[in-house]
Amino acid sequence: MNRITIYSTEMNYDGDYDRLGWFDLDAAEHILEESSRWDGQVMRGVISGMQVNRAQLYRTSGGRWVENQDSRPEFNGPNVWRFLTDDEAREWMVKSGGTEAEAELEKWFPDTPDESGPDSKGGRPAVGPTINVAYPRDLLDKIESAAKTEGLSRAAWLRKVAEKAVA
Questions:
Q1: Could you tell me the residue ranges of all domains in the chain?
Q2: pLDDT, tens digit, 9 for 90 and up, residues 63-116
Q3: Which residue, 78, 36, 30, is CA-closest to 54?
């Protein structure tokens, strides 16, 4: 038996770390090693940011997810084990990416959508409906100058002037 004890990562009021539980590493299933990406200078793990080692994801015999980030070879850092929720494990796999991660996602979380993110295509949040108004060039130049003087965008300046006019 290779018992791994997992502690909290924050000190309690006694200046100690709380024991959160333990599991048998020999009975756990190694699920995935994080993938790495080029950061412009070196290859780094996409989860841990480590150069030498890679974070590991395990599933205990009791069905809990466990992450291991062993940074001892990296910079004589800690060997950290932590429990993950199902959602955290799914995000771990999504963030890690790659063919192996996709296979594990399909195995453990087959309901994971093909894509996720905001519905917006970007840009500023909508203030209201968009209207098109044509201005003579000289008037448009004066509007842009006034907006610049007040440190506003043209649209914000026009909204401000319109609100004053109808108030």
A1: 3-108, 125-167
A2: 999 999 998 887 788 889 999 999 999 999 999 988 899 999 999 998 887 777
A3: 36
Dig out the tokens for 66 from the structure. Answer: 């466990």
Rounded Cα gap, residues 31 and 96, in angstroms:
12
CATH number of 125-167: 1.10.1220
Query: Which pLDDT band, with edges at 50, 70 and 90, does 155 fall under?
Result: confident
Q: Which residues contact 39 (CB under 8 A, 6 or more apart)?
A: none
DSSP 30: E
Strands 43-45 and 56-59, bridge-based pairing: unpaired
Residues in CB range of 15: below 8 A, 6 or more apart = none
**Residue of 59, 78, 85 lying closest to 7 (CA atoms):** 78
Tell which residue, 161, 164, 165, 155, has the closest CA to residue 127: 155
Whole-model pTM over 0.90: no
Token output for 89: 């494990």
First to last CA, the chain: 77
Closest alpha carbon to 33 in 61, 52, 7: 52
* Structure token pair of residue 94: 């999504």
